[in-house]
Design brief:
alpha/beta; three-stranded antiparallel β-sheet; six-stranded parallel β-sheet; single chain; 14 strands; 313 residues; 20% strand; 46% helix
């Protein structure tokens, strides 16, 4: 474990499930939890610590009440933010969560100068942009979790269509984390076979549409919440890749600096993830229609960024 320390800010369903996953995996020596709800964060730390003992894990789980107790982390995961409520506009949600993100980032970087920060809060791409602007840190150190989650959803819908291939499906999604994400059938495979070889165009189109609405489907069924098992596990893969310097290639939300022809905008693209965070950006050879879809996705994120620049920064 090399005495690695992970900090998690926000212990709602995603944050607490992530902490449980990491403690169970036994890949870090310490997990410290932080939340504005002191009793809740203490309860989560106790419960997850006890589960770690049941699993004979060496990971120590604690709650941070004071700011200086949340310090010297190798990785910090931020899930903090509010959910959209009835009558709240998209801009309202954006600005409320951007202000929360700015406050959280300013507090975090004081005591965690060497950390890699993973953002899970929504709207995801805009929150990564906010964190980068507030911190003034380089892009390799602040990364958004979305592409792994969206790809796992696509893999599920591929399996649902085929009824075989469990564990052998590699799906790929890039772009913003929203309705304009860009599923990539030509970069998705089933046991090494291209998706186009095992499914019809109509089936693939159906999978693409279901992937784009994968999160909304769960929200509709739950009625009072959103997904957390898949988001938490997807985040744990990123944490593991960083802590163990795995050099894994995952789709993640980063600030683009000329890649794919875009600059100063956040979007999900394949990256190599290691101890330094973003260690390489992978530029795929996209088809023309995929370039158009990616441009549409970029424009959707740009609208949010323009609102932030106008009203916050």
């Amino acid at each position: 474990m090399n005495n690695k320390k992970v900090g998690i800010i926000g212990v709602g369903n995603v944050g607490s499930t992530l902490a449980f996953n990491l403690a169970s995996k036994n890949i870090c020596s310490e997990i410290v939890l932080k939340d504005v709800r002191e009793n809740i964060v203490k309860a989560m730390a106790l419960d997850i610590s006890q589960s770690a003992h049941a699993a004979n894990s060496l990971t120590n789980v604690t709650a941070a009440i004071n700011a200086d107790e949340f310090s010297d982390c190798d990785v910090v995961v931020i899930t903090a933010g509010v959910a959209r409520k009835p009558g709240m506009s998209r801009d309202d949600l954006l600005l409320i969560n951007a202000k929360i993100m700015t406050s959280v980032i300013n507090d975090t970087i004081k005591y965690n100068q060497n950390a890699i920060i993973i953002i899970v809060s929504n709207p995801l791409d805009a929150m990564v942009y906010t964190a980068l602007k507030a911190s003034k840190w380089p892009r390799n150190k602040i990364i958004g979790m979305a592409g792994i989650l969206d790809s796992s959803r696509m893999a599920h819908f591929i399996f649902e269509k085929l009824a075989y291939g469990q564990g052998q499906i590699k799906a790929s999604v890039m772009g913003g984390h929203g309705d304009d994400m860009v599923p990539l059938p030509n970069f998705s495979t089933v046991n090494g076979l291209a998706l186009t070889e095992v499914l019809s165009n109509d089936d693939i189109e159906d999978i693409v549409n279901k992937t784009k609405n994968g999160g909304a489907q769960i929200v509709k069924l739950l009625e009072t919440g959103s997904a957390y098992y898949a988001p938490a596990y997807s985040t744990s893969l990123m944490v593991e890749a960083i802590l163990e310097d795995k050099k894994e290639v995952y789709p993640c939300a980063i600030m683009l600096e000329g890649e794919y022809g875009y600059d100063n905008i956040v979007a999900g693209v394949p990256i190599m993830l290691g101890k330094n965070g973003v260690e390489k950006v992978i530029e795929l050879n996209l088809e023309d229609n995929q370039k158009e879809q990616f441009n549409k996705s970029i424009n959707s994120v740009q609208e949010l960024v323009d609102t932030l620049e106008k009203k916050l920064f």
